[in-house]
């Protein structure tokens, strides 16, 4: 059984149909990258999976359980964690307190405060600092650590590279194999296509809320990806109009 | 010596103001609710204690021990039943709900207890005192009130910094949606914040009631003290609230030393001065 199964999911963002009949499956231990241009519906899809935006229609199953209508906090217990766009650290809390908020639901799993400090060694000496004093890349790492401490089966990462220098982005992505090795499945949303193709087992391209291309990075040509990303040429291969 | 005495008395009174203001600050900090019924809740607690003492004959301290947890439960329910629904409609809706609650409470109290001015009889404890130094005499009641206020504030501080739920309260105050993402059920977190607010306001209300008289319309005039303590101290900081309460208490006490009619005015003037020259308060609580 796949870990995550999305069927015909439609989500509105205001009046806009931001996600339009998207279906996808995600197996345990996989890294799936959802790519697409600005406004393709990637973030809305993740927010719907995390329980922040209610879907208009369609279903979401996590390990066979229907979670389409559960609120965000219950999905954390069910095993979904979202690293939100823009990091969103708690500004008046210290680094360590930010991380510890992830342990609120006390879900069991491989991730402990100690283990996160091993993943990001620099955090140990800065744990008493206020989270607002960190650089963007450091904040992103704390946001990932915080999500990991909920011990999710499925880690959703929204626009990790947003506003960060490429070298920082690469360094953070280098921790992804270790995270997946610990038994976490990852769904990352990324605007940086080359980065996404590098880290993902499979990619899924959205265009104006619809799936236009899906496959393994090795099986896709640069041209196919480019066309799907920008919406050029023939996009009927997905079976949709 | 007279002036020193005034400072000491004001300091002790300030502790009570801080205890009273804590709930207001907490509800605003966590939920962005300005609770206009805050003062009336203190008066409701006073009348409830009055009725319990009169009805059961239990000693006052037992009544206090019963009333405070009862108010915590009442706070949790009020949040879940009354306030939660209005939260999604924006800050104006919650303001109107608490304003309405204030009026309802005042009128219910008027209906049940009439407009007579009452006081809670604290017995000999309320009037006994000891000599501190020279002409400075400290009443046991104000001293115990002050120590109790400090202990409660310290307790809340420990809860907020050392426990998972307390951390989640602060996290929700920073960013509710992200707090949901790490597993906080906002309704429960808000309920707990309101429970703490109600419990502290009940305790403060009972202390006020032993110190001075009250009637069903006393609430709003008490509310202004809570606002002033919070604003003077700086929003979002418990120690700021304590400092704000003390500054307010000392100012009022010094004001009354000049002229008894100056008591409240002196407090209001300091409040206005802080608003004008240091609007973030003496101790700014947040790093933002």
Quick rundown:
The complex is a heterodimer of chains A (241) and B (288). With 241 residues, chain A is of the alpha/beta class.
Overview of this protein structure:
The complex is a heterodimer of chains A (241) and B (288). In chain A, the strands form 2 sheets. Chain A has a 6-stranded mixed β-sheet with strand order 6-7-8-3-9-10, sandwiched between helices. Chain A is built from 10 helices and 10 strands. In chain A, strand 9 and strand 10 form a beta hairpin. Chain A has a single domain, classed as Rossmann fold. Chain A has helices at 42-50, 72-78, 95-101, 113-119, 123-126, 136-148, 166-173, 176-181, 193-199, 222-230, and strands at residues 4-13, 16-26, 31-35, 57-62, 65-66, 80-83, 154-158, 185-190, 202-207, 210-215. Chain A is α/β, with parallel strands linked by helices and 241 residues long. Chain B is built from 11 helices and 2 strands. In chain B, 75% of the residues lie in helices and 3% in strands. With 288 residues, chain B is mostly helical. In chain B, strands 1-2 form a two-stranded antiparallel sheet. Chain B has one domain: ABC transporter involved in vitamin B12 uptake, BtuC. Chains A and B meet through helix 2 and helix 3 of A and helix 6 and helix 7 of B.
């Amino acid at each position: 059984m796949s870990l995550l199964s999305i069927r015909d999911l439609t989500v509105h963002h205001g009046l806009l149909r931001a996600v339009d009949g998207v279906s996808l499956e995600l197996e345990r231990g996989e890294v799936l990258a959802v790519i697409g241009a600005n406004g393709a519906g990637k973030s809305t899809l993740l927010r719907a999976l995390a329980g922040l935006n209610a879907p208009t229609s369609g279903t979401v199953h996590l390990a066979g359980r229907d979670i389409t209508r559960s609120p965000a906090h219950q999905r954390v217990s069910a095993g979904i964690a979202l690293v939100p766009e823009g990091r969103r650290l708690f500004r008046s809390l210290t680094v360590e307190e930010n991380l510890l908020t992830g342990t609120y639901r006390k879900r069991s799993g491989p991730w402990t405060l100690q283990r996160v400090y091993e993943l990001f060694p620099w955090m140990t000496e800065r744990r008493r600092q206020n989270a607002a004093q960190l650089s963007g890349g450091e904040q992103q790492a704390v946001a990932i650590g915080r999500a990991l401490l909920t011990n999710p089966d499925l880690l959703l990462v929204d626009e990790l590279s947003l506003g960060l220098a490429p070298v920082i982005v690469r360094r953070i992505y280098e921790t992804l194999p270790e995270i997946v090795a610990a038994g976490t499945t990852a769904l990352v949303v990324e605007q940086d296509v080359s980065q996404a193709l590098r880290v993902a087992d499979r990619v899924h391209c959205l265009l104006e809320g619809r799936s236009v291309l899906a496959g393994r990075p090795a099986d896709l040509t640069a041209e196919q990806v480019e066309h799907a990303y920008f919406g050029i040429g023939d996009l009927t291969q997905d079976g949709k109009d | 010596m007279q002036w020193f005495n005034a400072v000491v008395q004001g300091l002790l009174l300030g502790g009570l103001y801080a205890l009273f203001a804590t709930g207001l600050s907490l509800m605003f900090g966590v939920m962005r609710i300005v609770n206009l019924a805050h003062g009336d809740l203190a008066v409701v607690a006073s009348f409830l204690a009055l009725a319990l003492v009169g009805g059961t004959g239990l000693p006052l301290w037992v009544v206090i021990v019963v009333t405070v947890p009862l108010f915590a439960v009442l706070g949790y329910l009020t949040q879940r039943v009354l306030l939660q629904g209005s939260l999604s409609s924006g800050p104006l809706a919650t303001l109107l709900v608490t304003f309405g609650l204030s009026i309802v409470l005042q009128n219910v109290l008027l209906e049940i207890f009439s407009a007579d001015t009452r006081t809670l009889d604290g017995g000999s404890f309320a009037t006994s005192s000891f000599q501190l130094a020279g002409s400075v005499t400290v009443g046991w009641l104000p001293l115990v009130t002050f120590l109790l206020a400090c202990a409660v504030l310290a307790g809340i501080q420990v809860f907020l910094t050392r426990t998972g739920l307390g951390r989640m309260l602060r996290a929700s105050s920073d960013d509710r949606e992200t707090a949901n993402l790490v597993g906080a059920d906002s309704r429960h977190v808000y309920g707990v914040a309101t429970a703490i607010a109600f419990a502290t306001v009940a305790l403060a209300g009972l202390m006020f009631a032993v110190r001075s008289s009250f009637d069903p319309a006393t609430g709003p005039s008490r509310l202004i003290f809570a606002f002033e303590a919070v604003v003077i101290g700086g929003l979002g900081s418990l120690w700021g609230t304590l400092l704000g309460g003390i500054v307010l208490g000392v100012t009022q006490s010094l004001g009354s030393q000049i002229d008894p009619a100056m008591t409240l005015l002196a407090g209001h003037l300091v409040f206005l001065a802080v608003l004008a020259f240091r609007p973030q308060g003496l101790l700014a609580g947040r790093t933002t």
